[in-house]
User: Fold this.
Amino acid sequence: MAVTKREEFTQEEIWLSDVAKAMSHPARIRILKILNETNSCIVGTLVDKLPLAQATVSQHLKELKRVGLIEGEIDGPKVCYCLNLKSLSKAKSAIDKLFSIIGCC
Assistant:
């Protein structure tokens, strides 16, 4: 049986690794860029801008939403997504803190 060592890490380390994992696909990076440029988006619009099927785009959106990088609001048969600025700011601060001192070997 596998033993987990998650309790050995801080909540911030676990959260940041989860965010990094969610951002580790180029389609998700592109989705974040599109949402940043348009300020909000409907799933159909995202599908038109990506070389992926609608079901695949929905899975990527689900993962970004799971970690809190985006928010979604149901508007009738459409879902509008936007960036979660508070969560993105927290991630940026955590990454900046992680690499605040970069030294050479």
Summary: The mean pLDDT is 88. The two ends are 38 Å apart (CA to CA).
